[in-house]
Amino acid sequence: MAAHDSNTGTGNNSNSVLAFIVGALVVAVVVLGFALYNGMDFGQDDDISISIEGAGPAAEQAGEALEGAANAVDDAAEDVTGQ
């Protein structure tokens, strides 16, 4: 008499997905290991220089607007609290 398998048709599909995920992880580790072994420096060149030409007047106006907004909030707080 043959043994009864209650997992017929479901175990093979989940095993295939698990094998695919493990395979992808193995490939990723091998690629990263190879890149690091060959001297690739990840994150070593983090000197970033950003310059925006012609933003002087706009930056000054933005600073003045922020200062004016801060003063308005301060004045409103004084009006509410009476101090």
Question: What do you see in this structure?
Answer:
- With 83 residues, the chain is mainly alpha-helical.
- Helices cover 64% and strands 0% of the residues.
- The radius of gyration is 32 Å and the shape is elongated.
Head-to-tail CA distance between termini: 94 Å
Low-pLDDT stretches are none
Shape: elongated
Q: Would you report the number of β strands? A: 0
Strand-helix topology:
Layout: H1 11-37, H2 56-81
Summed up:
This protein has 83 residues and is mainly α. The chain has helices at 11-37, 56-81.
Which structural traits does this protein have?
83 residues; mainly alpha; 2 helices; 64% helix
